[in-house]
Specification:
The chain is mainly alpha-helical. The protein has a single domain, classed as hpI Integrase, Chain A, CATH 1.10.443.10. It contains twelve helices and six strands. It has a two-stranded antiparallel sheet with strand order 1-2. The protein has a two-stranded antiparallel sheet with strand order 3-4. It has a two-stranded antiparallel sheet with strand order 5-6. Helix 2 packs across helix 7, helix 7 runs antiparallel to helix 8 and helix 8 packs across helix 9. The longest helix is centred in the middle third of the chain and has 18 residues. About 30% of the residues are buried.
């Protein structure tokens, strides 16, 4: 969604703690995996158990197949970090408890209801509401939606790697201009920079001489090679 903002690490933790109810684990896992691999909501909902759970363990590299990628032009592979692996472990354990088994072909994020008895993936509208409720409960403001997860991945990855072309490849963008819009401004850094240039911040800076007692200052000056009398703070330059 155009204009949505990314989340800080602190906000991610608050959202993680905001999910509740029967589908708490499924919903939290969707969120955490989303900010870890940067998938579009349609791509995330197309994931099946067999895509992330192989040989009784989570995959460490996840591939968005060409069939589910927007535009269907090219598949892409994303390394799965520890947060993503934890999310996979949690949702697989939830599947075992909720369904009583692990069916490799089952959607990783299934719907709560199915009119024909088949287990289908949750829909975009349901996920949008789930995330919106979690953002509100976490006390967050600003323009937030499902696309926030993807933007969060993009900005966090760029902060660590510093390579916009690498971000472009992981997001599956056709050109780097689109990626630049995703990265945008790091609001945490911007806030700190704005605060640091305020007059109040300057007024709160300690005078460097205030951190020493008189005797400590004399000893410090002597150690630096100044000729200082022990009974005085006068130095001869």
């Amino acid at each position: 969604m155009k204009g949505t903002r990314p989340l800080t690490n602190s906000e991610i933790r608050r959202v993680i703690a905001a999910f509740e109810g029967t589908f708490e684990i499924r919903n939290r896992s969707f969120f955490l995996l989303g900010v870890s691999i940067g998938g579009r909501v349609s791509e995330m909902l197309a994931i099946k158990i067999e895509d992330v759970w192989q040989n009784d363990k989570p995959v460490t590299d996840f591939q968005f197949e060409r069939a589910v990628v927007k535009g269907g032009e090219i598949s892409r592979t994303i390394p799965v970090n520890r947060d993503g692996i934890a999310a996979i472990f949690d949702v697989i354990a939830w599947h075992e408890q909720y369904f009583g088994s692990i069916d490799p072909s089952r959607p990783l994020f299934p719907s709560q209801k199915s009119s024909d008895g088949k287990i289908k993936a949750a829909n975009r509208q349901a996920i949008h509401k789930i995330l919106k409720d979690a953002f509100i409960k976490a006390g967050l403001n600003g323009k937030l939606a499902t696309h926030t997860l993807r933007k969060t991945f993009a900005q966090r990855f760029y902060q660590k790697a510093g390579d916009i072309y690498m971000v472009k490849e992981l997001l599956g963008h056709k050109n780097v201009t689109t990626t630049q819009a995703y990265i945008g401004v790091n609001y945490t850094d911007a806030r700190e920079a704005c605060e640091s240039m305020s007059l109040a911040a300057e007024d709160n800076k300690a005078d460097p001489f205030d951190v020493f007692t008189e005797s400590e200052l004399v000893n410090k000056l002597i150690s630096l090679g100044y000729a200082v009398r022990k009974d005085s703070c006068d130095a001869r330059y």
